[in-house]
């Protein structure tokens, strides 16, 4: 069965230094209710940092949605709303 959410965490330099390093702990910190609904993968630069209209790093992609200024709290909030 495929997961409801595919979360791609950017580990490119711009994202990593702007807080992406903390996002790597998402797998451990995600609330239990979402554990079997998400697939979490890492990625090289998602290219979002190249266009300032995308907002601020760190970037995370959740399915087709690009989240800027991503944090674990914002990701969990997004999952709750969807
Ligand atoms: S380093 Fe993350 S989008 Fe480029």
Task: Describe it.
The chain is an alpha+beta fold and 82 residues long. It is 30% helix and 22% strand. It has three helices and four strands, in the order E-H-H-E-E-E-H. A four-stranded mixed beta sheet has the order 2-1-3-4, with helices on one face. Strand 3 (60-62) and strand 4 (65-67) form a beta hairpin. Bound molecules: FE2/S2 (inorganic) cluster. FE2/S2 (inorganic) cluster binds at residues 10, 12-15, 45-49, 57, 59.
In CATH, what is the class? Alpha Beta
Bound ligands: FE2/S2 (inorganic) cluster
The low-pLDDT segments are: none
Q: Which range does the strand content fall in?
A: 15-25%
Order of helices and strands: EHHEEEH
CATH architecture: 3-Layer(aba) Sandwich
Distance between the termini: 19 Å
Oligomer: single chain
Strand order of the largest sheet: 2-1-3-4
Task: Summarize this structure as a short list of keywords or feature phrases.
single chain, alpha+beta, 3 helices, 4 strands, binds FE2/S2 (inorganic) cluster
SSE layout and pairing:
Layout: E1 5-10, H1 13-23, H2 26-29, E2 38-43, E3 60-62, E4 65-67, H3 72-81
Parallel strand pairs: 1-2
Antiparallel strand pairs: 1-3, 3-4
The structure holds FE2/S2 (inorganic) cluster (FES).
FE2/S2 (inorganic) cluster (FES) binds at residues 10, 12-15, 45-49, 57, 59.
Q: What's a quick, concise take on this entry?
A:
By secondary structure, this protein is of the alpha+beta class.
